[in-house]
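Z., the sequence and structure:
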Amino acid sequence: MSDAQGVRVARFLEAVLAPVPLLSLTGLGVLLRSAGGPTFPADLGVFLLLVGVFLGLRLLLGTRWKDENRLYLVAGGLTLLLFAGVTRVVPVGRLLLFGAVSIGLLLALVAAIRPRWKISAHMASATGAAFSLLVADPLLAWTLLVVPPVAWCRLVLRAHTPMQVAAGGILGALVPLAVQRII
C-alpha cells in the first residue's frame, strides 16, 4: 500500500471510528446487554434522551464554539448533570449507570488533559468503549479489535505522537476498570 493509499484508509477509519459514534454505539451495546431486565424500558428511554441532548448541545454549541475541548466538556458535563437528575426520578439499571459514568468521566478527563497535552481522544474513546463493553460482558472482548486500527490511524495521519496515542489507550482502559470497582 502506498503512503497516499494508507492516508486515505486512515482518514476513512478515523471518520468511522470517531469518538462520538463509537461511544454512542458503546452505550447502545451496554444497554442491549441489559435487554429483558426489569429496568430496560427506563434504561432505553434515558439512553435515547441523553444521546439526543448530547447531540443537540454539540450541534447548538458547535456553531458558536470552535474549541472542541470546551465543546465536549460542556456538552458532556450538562448531559451528565441531566443524567444525575433523571436518575433521581427514574430508576435505571446498573449497566446503564456504569456506562454513563465511565463514558462521562473519560470525556471529562480527556477534555481536561488536552489543553495541556494533546492526548489522543480517539484512542481514549476506542479503548474506553471496548473496555466498557468488556466489563459489561466478557463475551464482548472481541470489541478490543477496534483499538489497533484507531492507534494506526492516529499515527499514520500524524495527529499524535506514539506517547499521546499510548496515553489515550491507557486512560481509556483504566477509567472503565476504576468505575466498575466503584459502582
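The chain has one domain: 3-182. The chain has a mean pLDDT of 87.

Let me know what you think.
H.
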